[in-house]
Amino acid sequence: MECIFCKIAKKEIPSTLVYEDEKIVMFKDLNPIAPIHLLAVPKNHISSANEITTENSKIIAHIFEVIAKENKNLGLEDGYRIINNCGKLGGQTVEHIHFHIVGGKELSWAKL
Ligand code: AMP
Ligand code: ZN
């Protein structure tokens, strides 16, 4: 059984896509925690930040490059936060690496 973000990347289940290229998709989070809450997801399956290696790490730079290039188009020109939850203690619930991009308001710095 393929994971939910692989299915979103292949358009096998619907999402509100805001950006797509040959390597990644970006779509709106179903349960937003800020006025803008997007998820940036590589099309290839990588389970978590713990699985980043010399061989697959280029995709991470690509995600950050796309965010930087598209920030105005995404309504993020005044600033935003990029979050990656990793593993059980990190609060990761979907085991396909993803970066939350949150913005659209002044963000407080969480006391964890
Ligand atoms: P994390 O807790 O870091 O693993 O984040 C998983 C995120 O995926 C949560 O913020 C969920 O709201 C979001 N999510 C889960 N399923 C979907 C979906 N089908 N479409 C959009 N966002 C989703
Ligand atoms: Zn996957």
Description:
- By secondary structure, this protein is of the alpha+beta class.
- The protein has a single domain (4-103), classed as HIT-like (HIT family, subunit A).
- Helices cover 21% and strands 22% of the residues.
- A hairpin with a 3-residue loop joins strand 1 and strand 2.
- The relative contact order is 0.22.
- The model has no long low-confidence stretch (mean pLDDT 97).
- It binds adenosine monophosphate and zinc ion (ZN).
- Adenosine monophosphate is lined by residues 4, 15, 29-31, 39, 85, 91-94.
Please name the defining characteristics of this protein.
HIT family, subunit A; alpha+beta; binds adenosine monophosphate; 5 strands; binds zinc ion; single chain; 3 helices; 5-stranded antiparallel sheet; 112 residues; 22% strand
Could you give the topology of this structure?
Elements: H1 4-9, E1 17-20, E2 24-28, E3 36-42, H2 58-70, E4 80-83, H3 87-90, E5 99-103
Antiparallel strand pairs: 1-2, 2-3, 3-5, 4-5
Q: Pairing-aware structural class of the strands and helices? A: alpha+beta
* Count of distinct strands: 5
Look up the CATH topology.
HIT family, subunit A
Major sheet description: 5 strands, antiparallel
* Envelope shape: globular
Q: Given this structure, which CATH class is correct?
A: Alpha Beta
Unique ligands: adenosine monophosphate, zinc ion
Give, in spatial order, the strands making up the sheet with the most strands.
1-2-3-5-4
Mean pLDDT: 97
What integer value in Å does the Rg equal?
14 Å
Unreliable spans are: none
Q: How many discrete domains? A: 1
Listing every helix as H and every strand as E from the N terminus to the C terminus, the arrangement reads: HEEEHEHE
Straight-line N-to-C gap: 34 Å
Give the % helix: 10-25%
How many helical elements? 3
CATH architecture: 2-Layer Sandwich
Please indicate the percent range of residues in DSSP E strands (runs of 2 or more).
15-25%
